[in-house]
Amino acid sequence: MPKTDKILLSGNAAVAYAAMDVGVAFFSHYPGSPVTTIESSLKKLKDQYHLPVIFNDALNEHVAALSAMGASFAQAKSMLVMKHVGLNIAADPLVYAGYSGVKGGMVVIVGTDPGANSSTGEQDVHWYAKAFNFPLFEPTNIQEIYEQVFEAYTLSQQYEIPVFIFIPVELAHTVASVQRLPAKKNKLNFRFEKDRKSYINVGQRAVKNHEILLDKIKQIAKLKTGTTFFNSKAKFGIITRGLAFGYVLESILKLGLQEHVHLLQMERVYPINQDIIISFAKNKTEVTFIEDQDGFLEIMVKQLCFNELDCTIHGKDIFPAYGALRLDSIQYYLSEKFSLPVSKPQQWNFDVEERLGTFCEGCPHTASYYAIFDALDGVDFVLGGDIGCSSLPPFRADWLLCMNAGIGVSQGIALVSPNQLVISTGGDGSFFHGGMISLQSAVENNINLIHIVFDNQYVAMTGHQYSPSQGNGFQVEHFLEAIGVKWFQVVDVFEKDGLQNAIKTAATQTGVRVIWAKGACALVTASERGKKAYEYKVFIDSDRCGDCTICYEKLACPAIQKDEHGFFFSDEHLCVRCGVCKNICPKEAISFISN
Hints:
Helix 1 packs across helix 2 (37-49) and helix 1 runs parallel beside helix 6 (142-159). The chain starts with 5 loop residues before the first strand and ends with a strand. By secondary structure, it is an alpha/beta fold. The strands form 7 sheets. The chain has a 7-stranded mixed beta sheet with strand order 3-2-4-5-7-6-12, sandwiched between helices. A 5-stranded mixed beta sheet has the order 9-11-10-13-14, with helices on both faces. Strands 15-16-17-21-20 form a 5-stranded parallel beta sheet, sandwiched between helices. The protein has 4 domains: 6-221, Thiamin diphosphate (ThDP)-binding fold, Pyr/PP domains (Rossmann fold), CATH 3.40.50; 226-337, 3-Layer(aba) Sandwich (Rossmann fold); 364-518, Rossmann fold (3-Layer(aba) Sandwich), CATH 3.40.50; 526-594, Alpha-Beta Plaits. The model has no long low-confidence stretch (mean pLDDT 92). Strand 10, helix 10 (244-255) and strand 11 form a beta-alpha-beta unit.
């Protein structure tokens, strides 16, 4: 396939193709929506075109960042990918990446999520660009995603500095035609050359390298950073960045305001070219910033151009700093501004009941949570929740915050409230991400808690990435013994009463107790499920059923439903024949019947 072909790509796939065409040699990531599929797309391209790309599927963003830095120190083009909250984990090493600089070029792709459409919360991570002093690009469409990867590597190599590209959830999953650029030749041989002056950053050396970094940013700020549209003589100006540009452009065209508005789109959001801003605003009476989240661009411009601008400036006094930016809100604002007839954006004035999440049919977490509540019926206990598949039904845990918050928060509660039984939970993905250190800390401090690891053998919520629990030498019993856990059990959650009995026994012990609850993800074991579905059907005997609703409400398996007469039945198309409902039925009304 010629490199100049047009091809239909999602935003994530555009990053993967750009990585291939620009010659990325090292790819490191921790999976996180909305940018999870960049890695899988690039791996497919590697297999298809025999690319010399080395992958590091790191166990957290901190490690991913450090490995990408190391590869770039050895003169390889490295790419680092994570979601917005993952940038918090990577922050420590990335601060130093600016001081040390990079040799081979390093681009950091961050998936952002205004409105928390695929995340636990929304956070404006633009401030990291200012804190780290990394140049920041924000594409407005899929073609720009592809092209800005090339631009970012050119900038990174020229100034020996990591470069950010932020991709919002809408662009990550949008599909459009992309014109590919001629591929750059891939360097194959790499070598780390000692450079202690750059790489050792302590004391006055760090201060000196910080000074060098700030000088680089001043030089980069002088480069072209924005594109203007429409009437340069208009007295009203709009400045946008990223996805907001498309909404503003569409609104201006739809309302016929081309002669009344001068629009500036900032392709590089940080550092800002002061001259472009001042030139744009010099004949304006009013400039409005239209951007999502905190108003990063507005605040940076106000700080940079203080006493330089004579016009009135608006932004976050008009558009909220929370939620996703809405097209109808922009159109309403412009219509009111220019006295055009328009319908006010619909504001819902009634509460819509929250639709709670649920597990997949046959998910091992369904059995695990049932076991916890069944074993501790009548006991005063606290249940710490963690992010991942186990957080899908939010009514199970007592809190859901960030990764490893289950075992982390539990330690504080256990210390100040010793009369309560404290149980923390987390998946195997969270455990290897940072839970191992949290567990070690609990052991060292002799915290009185039970920690249950829900091991479904994958980092399942983000696409079934590899988990060390699958093999490659990790033996949970040896690990727990090595870090000093005195009491632990490894159980199969699909075996009758196994987890319940382990929890009951653990509740009688003290100190750190660990239950490793194993059960493969139902989505991975599809072929095995298919065989069981063909061999058996699940029958619920309505004559024996006592309508206790344990299987329907307490277990809450989605495959168990009610018919029009109020009788329970198992939907054969949903049921995976895991057998948990059969194991827990007190009336033995559920049975497997051979087909």
